[in-house]
Amino acid sequence: MLALCSFVGSLLLQAFLYPRGSGDADEAAYVLQARMLLDGRLTLDARVVEPFFQPWLTGVHGNHVFTKYLPGWPALLAVSQALFGTMTVAPAAVAACWVIGAYLLARELFDDVWTALVAAVLLALSPLVLLHTALPLAYACCAAVLTLASALLLRGARTGSRPALIGGGALVGFALLNRPYDVVLVMLPLVLFVAARQRRTPRRLLTRSAWAALGAAPLVAVLLAYCWHVTGSPLRLPLSASDPLDTFGFGARRILPTEPSFLFTRHAAEQALWDTLGAAPSWYFGGLGLVALAAVGLLAPRRRPERLLLLATTAAVLAGYFFWWGSAFAVPGLRNGLGPHYHLAGFTPLVILAAAGARWLWTLLPGRPRTRRAAAPAARPASSPARPARASLPTRLVRPTALALTAVGFVALTVPTLQARIDVQHNVDAGNDFLDALVPDDLPGPALVVVTSGVASRYTQVPYHTLRNSPGLDGPIVYAADIGPAVAALPERMPGRTLYRLRPDELVDADVPGSYRGSFVPLRQVTGTRVEIRVTIRPPAAATGGNAAAPASVGAGARMYIRLGGETRSLDLAALPPGGSDGAGALTHTFALTTGAITGPDEITAGQSSPAELVVGFAAGADPHAGGWEERFPLVRRATGDLSLLAPGLGWRRLPDGAAGVRPGWLAARVLPTLDVALAGAAGR
Questions:
Q1: H or E element that contains 613
Q2: Closest to 57 (Cα-Cα) out of 32, 20, 34
Q3: What residues contact residue 674 under an 8 Å CB cut-off, 6+ apart?
Q4: pLDDT of 471 above 50
Q5: What are the sequence ranges of the domains in the chain?
Q6: Of 417-421, 577-581, 655-659, which range is least confident?
Q7: Would you state the pLDDT for residue 556?
Q8: Closest residue by Cα to residue 254 from 326, 334, 341
Q9: What is the pTM assigned to this prediction?
Q10: d(CA 78, CA 41)
Q11: Residue 580 has pLDDT above 80, yes or no
């Protein structure tokens, strides 16, 4: 019943609190891999996905793009999708499996149903378990599988049950297909425990180990074959194959070759460990109360080896991840994000220790007395039944009162930690809603959307994890990462799709503090051996209804310009007629970009260097800190020799020094109506 409640609870959390995940970009990688398996793919074609469509957390081997993660958990997501039409059943099944595993492991270790039930309840109600069994991440799956595997292997080692040994071995094999390092950390203390128990019967130990190995062998073979296929070596895991610096130990570390490196030092590891230990109690049901019970459970009499096994397992996980650089990166989310997710494999042992501590304290409390024994047979008639000893009412209430107070206390320690985490998730949902609102639901025909993020990235899922492509890039919308000027080649890569640009961080009006953000605009391809660039400047005073004819409306030294590489052409706006070239305050001039010889002072030759960025701008004064407007167009030179640009370009603003709330440098912002640029190719396209 408790497992069923956990199953249903996971489905409800996924439906109402995490309908689109937690905001962690790794979720997109697992979902993509599941979709690849459903399509019968283990890898993607690098010639198709690079450089615009490469998914987050993927590496390249030859012409194949592979995911950094192993296929165990994605396979469960794929099975869930195939059988039920949704991937949400897989995390819910993990929740139920974890509760069952905790119950079986606690019962195997302490041979007590009461302890096992309490362990299962404490686990099921812990916020970290509730969170991770509602997400498409592999941490909970591996922890749950290892918990159940430990229970079966210990039972098999004790009784010789072949089904338990083979089943436990198979679960270990499946865990290897998820997170091999967790398997090593959890299984090492267990193997030493069993070996110490059966050191006097080595033949029995060897035989039972062989049965467990038999269960694991098929899945180990799958692991080796998978690694061989995707990385070229059966002993090379995808995680490190994608980048040799993504590994354990100290030194320069990074997640992908395209990302910046991070110097992971011993000091950073120590700080991450202390932060993890400080945040971890709040993720247990009962917080520090559960930790205190676990300390009691460790020190309680009887079954000392079993208690030390649980302690050793958690200690092994903590020690093992001391050397993992990702632990330092996880620090910002330890309290209200994903929590200590790397250490989930060491979560269950502490819960079981707490249950054992609660059980021992329970036995110390006065309860219902046992049946009285007669002093002698002659003292009462043979037909007179034994009478239970009567306890006073206060004595009979001790245990129920202690249980009620503990439950209330644990709830009181847990509930205050939830709101901040829910608020974080609501912020994630608000960001997702904002992104959804920018992209229209009724785009005509198949679309190709260039995603321009505030932080340069080769991946659309960073930072926008919900912008996901199908493995075959055949969905109604295909998202392409804005990798720079090379995006001008996209129309040739995907002909027949309408182009758009999504720029969530673009300011609507950079002059207004707290301006609205976000833009979604159609793009058109401009081609030709000669491209005319018609630049119209509407000085800010004119744009806001001021006197456009006043010389101060543009300022001394104001100019318009175009720039391509190291070549610049500019025009001093003082050279134009007062009141604007059109007499209405707008200043217009035409420049040109050509592949041939220059025929005038306002032309630039586009050489063979490609891709490049064409910059069209307006500077409000000669001072380098004066206000500025720029529109930047991606440009490539096609195989036919002509030029290809995408318009409109990206707008950028530089606010003048002294403006309130000004950040130095250029801001992603709209430049209309001050700067209006129109491109026309040789064929008028």
A1: strand 612-619
A2: 32
A3: 537, 538, 539, 540, 543, 618, 629
A4: yes
A5: 2-247+259-361, 449-680
A6: 577-581
A7: 78
A8: 326
A9: 0.90
A10: 12
A11: no
Contacts 24+ apart (CB under 8 A), 465-468: 465/21, 465/23, 465/24, 465/25, 465/27, 465/28, 465/56, 466/20, 466/21, 466/28, 466/432, 466/435, 466/436, 467/435, 467/502, 468/28, 468/31, 468/32, 468/55
User: Which distant-in-sequence residues (6+ apart) come within 8 Å of 520 by Cβ?
Assistant: 438, 439, 440, 500, 501, 502, 503
Q: Tokens 């202690």 appear where? A: 402
Q: Which long-range contacts (CB under 8 A, 24 or more apart) does 656-664 make?
A: 656/620, 656/625, 656/626, 656/627, 657/625, 659/511, 660/513, 661/513
DSSP class of residue 39? T
Tokens encoding 460: 């659309």
Average pLDDT, the chain: 91
Task: Report the alpha-carbon distance of residue 478 to residue 449 in Å, rounded.
Answer: 6
281-290 pLDDT, tens digit per residue, is 999 999 999 9
Q: Is 99 helix (H, G, I), strand (E, B) or coil?
A: helix
For residue 540, the model assigns a pLDDT of 80
pLDDT score for 685: 41
- The amino acid occupying position 485 is P
- pLDDT exceeds 50 at position 528: yes
Q: How far is CA 32 from CA 26, 256, 453, in A?
A: 10, 18, 21
Residues facing residue 572 across a β-bridge: 559
17: its two tokens? 């609190």
Sign of the C-alpha dihedral, residues 185, 191, 193, 196? negative
Sign (positive or negative) of CA dihedral 206, 210, 212, 213: positive
User: Six-digit token pair at 190?
Assistant: 């267990």
Q: How many CA atoms lie within 13 A of 558 on its CB side?
A: 22
Query: What DSSP state is assigned to residue 377?
Result: G
pLDDT, mean of residues 557-564: 93
- Six-digit token pair at 432? 């997702």
3 state DSSP class of 224: helix
At residue 548, the pLDDT reads 39
Q: Which two tokens stand for residue 552?
A: 């101060």
Amino acid at position 229, single letter: H
Task: Tell me the three state secondary structure of residue 368.
Answer: coil
Q: How far apart are CA 190 and CA 170, in angstroms?
A: 16
Pick from 327, 306, 318, 304: nearest CA to 347? 318
The whole-angstrom separation of Cα 160 and Cα 626 is: 82
Conformational region of residue 614, where left means phi above 0, alpha means psi within -120 to 50, and beta covers everything else: beta
Contact status, residue 525 vs residue 496, Cβ threshold 8 Å: no
Amino acid present at 207: T
SS3 label, residue 125: coil
260 prior amide bond cis, ω within 30 = no
Q: What share of the chain is helix, strand, coil (3-state, %, to 5)?
A: 45, 15, 35
With tokens 């500077």, the residue in question is: 619
Q: Which two tokens stand for residue 423?
A: 């608020």
What length is written for the chain? 685
Tell me the C-alpha distance between 254 and 262, whole Å. 6
In degrees, rounded to 5, the angle at the alpha carbon of residue 593 between the alpha carbons of residues 588 and 598 is 105
